[in-house]
């Protein structure tokens, strides 16, 4: 009897170990690649996306625990197109299943071309230039685009009832494209628009803002540039005090960092933002995202992290689906990603033939007393808009 | 065996390794080959810069202008006029050479004044590229620039093809530099370093010779810029006229030994590949710092650069090793 029992225990233990072993054999570790500017002029925005990607990997490892695990290998492209291409090639050589990352349309262009040549998916939220998707690369995907930013800026300016708007914009591809889109849409609606282009090397905006003040006499100023440009424009405006009712910008403006670093310049300024600051989340995924972000980086997430998270989570889910369908190793990931139809932290995401998310539309936040309050569209607002109101 | 014969033998072996060994060993590794191509791109500009400095006696801070003009000329010719890529690359060099003619008045200046003038010219060309939107695409630049073609079944548009092209450009530039150095022009230019007035007195057209060196240096840089445009397949004014196309080649030339023909090439390969393959994996966010320290150490301990240090020539000889 004793011997039979011992035999039974041995057989059971063997069966259990075989079962566990079989389970472990099914579990797979997927290596994702990430090419981002972590040094150079785009280091700050690159770091923001990098954090979002890390949160997505952490959360995916929790939700797929015991089944699959995920790792990300990140290479700094040093804000250089050539080094971005080299980074993609290194990631390809290291056997990543896909690439998430990239910042700046001019860097994403050649980097995603290298990924396309290798047949690897490249998903991003860092480049909104229309040219990127017009190339029709089957492996290129992005979750945001110029249209979404332009719609938010145009929508807010219209709701504010602006009749004359001065658009002050940087002469880069993405910024020029967005500024021209705003100009066309507002002009078609009978708004008088003054267009003022500036160069990236501009540090003193007083002559330009003086022209806006004396020549245009607008109701609102629309800024399309990046952080340093906004600070320069607002500093010049604070000196010249043009008689406007609102100052509106787009990306990299309605952020916690800008509120902390330039409180005197930011008050009442509008910018695109998916999140209020401090963050208020109710959706379970969003709550978990914010908690994980806090745990990993000891701070509240901003919109850059949110975009990095969403693009990476969509990629991970598609990788798992393709793996389950047995198509991952046969180039089936782009098709699987194209089947995406998800409600995410930035709204609904689907991809068209060119990998663009045509559902993308942004929200507008306003700096109010060190916070960023979502004020547009009305159904997404979490506070009241200060209008008319300017920082000076 | 004489030194000259040894040098020739070494050069033949080095070229055989470069043309056969490197593609065989790294042909399957696009990453490493891509880094070598990037290093050779810098090497090409470094050779052109050293040629101007060493033979023309001019320190240029504006080679990014020639690089940018060459790359835009070639890209626009290929994209808008359908000129074959190989021809447009050479015409890119011609475009850069023509642009250098606008800089000829600066030849009257010396030392830091010439350096600053050429820097200002570079900025002018960048502004022109930004403003000429219908031709250059403006600040948005040009994407999907045609790549090098496939010839007799060999794809020059891939990494190995690109490597062979840029290697050939660099080798030809170095041979041209060496040939001029050994010619009577080279002798005259060398004499001009010691006393320009005296060489003029004996009938050496010093301004013409300096102008010729400037045009040749611009041509080489323009061809390298054109190659890069077709290899990367992308251009915008900030990238094409980036100060990096001036600073890195200068650092490479000084590191390798700018008074030697092959020093700039060795310097470019050393600083770029060591930085990307060795320092970057160790220190992802501060690897450039190590490179800076290494460059400082090289200048302090071997002012002549890496090549003279490797060849172990006496210091006295180095100091007088003009051209």
Strand count, sense and barrel status of the largest sheet of chain A are: 4 strands, parallel
What is the multimeric organization of the chains shown?
heterodimer
Number of domains of chain A: 2
Number of helices of chain A: 14
pLDDT < 50 stretches of chain B: 315-323
* CATH topological fold name of the largest domain in chain A: Rossmann fold
CATH superfamily of the largest domain in chain A: Response regulator
Most extensive protein-chain contact, per-chain counts: A-B, 29 and 29 residues
Helix content of chain A: 40-55%
**Measured on Cα atoms, how large is the radius of gyration of chain B?**
19 Å
- Determine the structural class of chain A based on helices, strands and strand pairing: alpha/beta
The average pLDDT of chain B is 87
Q: How large is the radius of gyration of chain A?
A: 24 Å
Q: What distance separates the N and C termini of chain B?
A: 25 Å
Concise overview:
The complex is a heterodimer of chains A (392) and B (323). Chain A is of the alpha/beta class and 392 residues long.
Can you give a write-up of this model?
The complex is a heterodimer of chains A (392) and B (323). By secondary structure, chain A is α/β, with parallel strands linked by helices. Chain A has 2 domains: 28-145 and 282-350, Rossmann fold (3-Layer(aba) Sandwich), CATH 3.40.50.2300; 147-278 and 363-376, Rossmann fold. Helix content of chain A is 47%, strand content 18%. Chain A contains 14 helices and 14 strands. Chain A has helices at residues 2-26, 43-63, 81-93, 105-117, 130-134, 146-159, 173-188, 206-216, 227-240, 256-261, 263-266, 284-297, 303-325, 333-338; strands at 28-36, 68-76, 98-100, 121-124, 140-142, 164-170, 192-198, 220-224, 246-248, 270-272, 341-344, 347-350, 364-368, 371-376. In chain A, the strands form 5 sheets. In chain A, strands 7-6-8-9 form a 4-stranded parallel sheet, with helices on both faces. A 3-stranded parallel sheet of chain A has the order 3-4-5, sandwiched between helices. In chain A, α2 (43-63) crosses α12 (284-297), α3 runs parallel beside α4 and α8 crosses α9. The model of chain A is unreliable at 13-25 (pLDDT under 50). Chain B has 323 residues and is mostly helical. Chain B has one domain (28-307). In chain B, 74% of the residues lie in helices and 2% in strands. Chain B has helices spanning 3-26, 30-54, 63-80, 85-101, 111-131, 133-136, 159-182, 184-194, 196-201, 206-232, 237-240, 244-256, 263-282, 287-301, 306-311, 315-319, and strands spanning 142-143, 150-151, 154-155, 234-235. In chain B, a hairpin with a 2-residue loop joins β2 and β3 (154-155). In chain B, α2 (30-54) packs across α12. Chain B starts with a helix and ends with a helix. Classes of the chains: A alpha/beta (392), B mainly alpha (323). Chain A binds chain B through residues 38-39, 76, 80-83, 85-86, 89-90, 92-93, 106, 109-110, 113, 118, 129, 131, 135, 170-173, 176-177, 199-200, and chain B through 29-31, 34-35, 38, 41, 127, 130, 138-141, 143-144, 159, 228, 232-234, 236, 238-239, 244, 276, 280, 284-285, 288.
């Amino acid at each position: 009897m004793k011997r039979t029992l011992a035999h039974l225990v041995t057989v059971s233990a063997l069966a259990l170990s075989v079962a566990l072993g079989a389970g472990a054999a099914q579990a797979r570790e997927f290596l994702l690649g990430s090419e981002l500017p972590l040094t150079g002029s785009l280091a700050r925005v690159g770091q923001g996306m990098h954090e979002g990607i890390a949160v997505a990997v952490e959360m995916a490892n929790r939700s797929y625990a015991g089944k699959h695990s995920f790792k990300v290998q990140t290479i700094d492209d040093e804000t250089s197109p050539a080094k971005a291409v080299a980074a993609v090639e290194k990631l390809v050589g290291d056997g990543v299943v896909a690439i998430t990352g990239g910042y700046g349309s001019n860097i994403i262009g050649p980097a995603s071309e290298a990924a396309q040549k290798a047949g690897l998916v490249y998903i991003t939220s860092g480049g909104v230039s229309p040219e990127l998707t017009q190339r029709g690369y089957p492996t290129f995907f992005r979750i945001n685009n110029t249209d979404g930013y332009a719609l938010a800026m145009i929508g807010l300016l219209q709701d504010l009832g602006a009749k004359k708007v001065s658009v002050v914009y940087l002469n880069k591809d993405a910024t020029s494209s967005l500024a021209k889109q705003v100009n066309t849409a507002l002009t078609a609606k009978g708004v008088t628009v003054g267009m003022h282009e500036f160069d990236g090397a501009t540090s003193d905006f007083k002559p330009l803002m003086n022209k806006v003040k004396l020549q245009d006499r607008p109701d609102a100023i629309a800024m399309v540039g990046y952080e340093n440009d906004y600070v320069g424009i607002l500093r010049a405006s604070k000196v010249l005090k043009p008689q406007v009712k609102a100052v509106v910008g787009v990306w990299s403006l309605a952020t916690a960092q800008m509120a902390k670093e330039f409180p005197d310049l930011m008050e009442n300024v509008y910018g695109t933002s998916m999140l209020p600051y401090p963050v208020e989340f109710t959706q379970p995924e969003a709550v978990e995202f914010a908690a994980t972000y806090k745990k990993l980086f000891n701070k509240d997430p901003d919109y850059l992290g949110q975009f990095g998270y969403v693009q990476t989570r969509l990629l991970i889910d598609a990788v798992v689906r393709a793996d389950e369908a047995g198509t991952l190793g046969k180039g089936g990931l782009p098709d699987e990603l194209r089947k995406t139809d998800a409600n995410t932290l930035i709204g609904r995401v689907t991809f068209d033939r060119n990998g663009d998310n045509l559902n993308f539309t942004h929200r507008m936040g306003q700096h109010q007393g060190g916070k960023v309050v979502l004020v547009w569209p009305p159904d997404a607002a979490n506070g009241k808009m200060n209008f008319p109101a300017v920082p000076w | 065996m004489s030194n000259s014969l040894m040098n020739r033998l070494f050069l033949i072996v080095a070229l055989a390794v470069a043309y056969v060994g490197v593609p065989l060993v790294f042909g399957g590794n696009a990453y490493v080959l891509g880094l070598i191509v990037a290093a050779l791109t810098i090497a090409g500009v470094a050779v052109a810069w050293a040629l101007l400095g060493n033979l023309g006696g001019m320190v240029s801070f504006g080679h990014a202008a020639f690089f940018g003009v060459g790359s835009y000329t070639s890209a626009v010719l290929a994209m808008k006029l359908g000129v074959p890529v190989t021809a447009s690359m050479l015409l890119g060099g011609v475009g850069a050479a023509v642009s250098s003619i606008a800089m000829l008045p600066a030849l009257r200046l010396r030392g830091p004044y010439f350096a600053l003038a050429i820097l200002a010219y570079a900025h002018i060309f960048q502004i022109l590229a930004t403003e000429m939107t219908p031709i250059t695409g403006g600040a948005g630049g040009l994407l999907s620039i045609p790549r090098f073609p496939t010839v007799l079944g060999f794809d020059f548009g891939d990494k190995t093809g690109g490597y062979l092209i840029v290697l050939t450009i660099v080798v030809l530039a170095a041979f041209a530099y060496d040939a001029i150095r050994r010619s009577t022009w080279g002798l005259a230019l060398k004499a001009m370093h010691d006393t320009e007035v005296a060489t003029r007195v004996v009938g050496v057209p010093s301004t013409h010779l300096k102008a010729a060196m400037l045009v040749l240096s611009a041509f080489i840089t323009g061809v390298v810029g054109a190659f890069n445009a077709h290899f990367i397949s992308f251009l915008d004014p900030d990238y094409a006229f980036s100060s990096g196309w001036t600073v890195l080649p200068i650092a490479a030339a000084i590191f390798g030994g700018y008074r030697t023909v092959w020093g700039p090439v060795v310097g470019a390969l050393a600083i770029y590949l060591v930085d990307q393959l060795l320092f970057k994996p160790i220190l992802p966010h501060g690897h450039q710092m190590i490179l800076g320290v290494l460059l400082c150490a090289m200048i302090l301990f071997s002012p002549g650069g890496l090549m003279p240090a490797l060849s172990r020539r006496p210091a006295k000889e180095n100091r007088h090793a003009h051209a």
